[in-house]
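Run log, item B.
One chain of 214 residues. Sequence copied directly from the ordering sheet:
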Amino acid sequence: MSDIRGDLLQAAEQLLAEGAPLSLEGTAQRAGVARSTAYRYFSGRDDLLLHLANIRSSRLLDKALALVAREGAAAVRLTEAMVYLFQAIPADDVLSQFVNEGPGSLDQPAAREAAYTFLGPLVTEAQERGEFSTDYPPLEAVRWLVAQLLTSVAVLHDDVEQFRKWFQWFVLPALMSAPATPEAAGAVSAALRTHIRALEQLADRIDTSTNLNR
């Protein structure tokens, strides 16, 4: 038995690959099914595009999963996966249309489920290993990460280096635990001592200046 939904989606992929205008009627014609039959599976062009977007998202996440599955610190793996998606999403002719409509356009249940399947285990693993804070549920962290990614795509366009900087400067620190190693604690302590000495020296100069002006 033919998978009519699958045939329609495949026909839509073919039309997009050819650069042809996409409509549910044209997709039905390409798939060799009646227009009324196509409307039993999709409510219209936007619904068809949304299903295509879910398919494309899953493909990208499958490729990014290889980056996440590597050995090493969670922050490094997450950064590389997000940088890959930052480049890949605008290059996709379906996903880019949704991003242009606003980052919230891809915040759909199916997309959230796919993103959590991809990123949820990484966030959970990082929390268990003490790399990420446990102050938030992994599900909420993943949804926030996707929002940051899509917003950055819309704002930064193809500026990969700026996205990488923003991600490392602002996104990762919000996820990560405070340093707890002796080395990190020692570095913080040394920085505080330096800061205190600078304040003491500044106070001495102010006091000396005040005495000279009397």
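Observations after the first pass:
- The chain has a mean pLDDT of 82.
- The chain has ten helices and no strands.
Flagged for discussion on Thursday.
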